[in-house]
User: What shape does this take?
Amino acid sequence: MSNAKVLPLLEADGQGVAPCCPPLTERPMTAKEAATAARMFKALGDPVRLRLFSAVASHEGGEACVCDISDVGVSQPTVSHHLKKLKEAGLLTSERRGTWVYYRVEPSVLAAMGKLLVGASAAV
Amino acid sequence: MSNAKVLPLLEADGQGVAPCCPPLTERPMTAKEAATAARMFKALGDPVRLRLFSAVASHEGGEACVCDISDVGVSQPTVSHHLKKLKEAGLLTSERRGTWVYYRVEPSVLAAMGKLLVGASAAV
DNA sequence: GCACTGGTTCGACGTGTGTCAACATAGACA
DNA sequence: TGTCTATGTTGACACACGTCGAACCAGTGC
Assistant: This one.
């Protein structure tokens, strides 16, 4: 259940992860780079998903139980659906712990997306 | 043709612009904040738009003529359509200069989005 | 004024996406 | 074992989105 293989924006590089794409402002993205990065932006392009993601990211320890964050105005199947989308996009990972399922956000993904936007100003 | 009123993620604060929303990791976003921010992520959630945006952002001076960036594999009407979407999302501004139309990216928008993702680490 | 080039808008088509109700599954507890 | 709660999955629906061709507007140059 490591994070490397499920994060399309990142690639394992031995001791950690590296961004898939150069900063947007550095050079025009190739079609492949754009497709990879767009998948993640798209995942955050829904208000419900953004709220869910923010709820998880801001929760203590960077992880939250579904039961803690499912109050976003949609039915529970829809919440589950969106969480799955976020997981497929590589933004969240999930883990079952007894009765409840916990979702957690990978800080490295946030950092990679930040770098994509602001270029070199976001230090490692 | 100022940038303040057309940038949903930002709000004019006298001498510049400020982010609309707190970092994702700070606290759960409200529905309103999520709707605002999601609009921009959604705009970048399409590979063609992402390439167009990157092409403009990486062009010298942060601006580019449509003729310079319309080689992304779709028809010109589609390019125009996507540029309009990016403009509506507040990521680009356009200006006609003689025969050609130039699009430019607002650096402050990129910085605001970066902050949204990585919190305080992305300085102004 | 007239033709030409660069961009945008319009109308239409097929596909993708968000949503829900209903059902299925996993673990806890008795 | 059986039942109850917590999540995930399935199927179906309406709506939004990306794409294109055709028509339309804005400047330029003759």
Q: What stands out?
A: Chain B has a mean pLDDT of 81. Residues 65 and 98 of chain B are 11 Å apart (CA to CA). Strands of chain B lie at 10-12, 17-19, 63-65, 92-97, 100-105. The helical segments of chain B are 31-43, 47-58, 66-69, 76-88, 107-118.
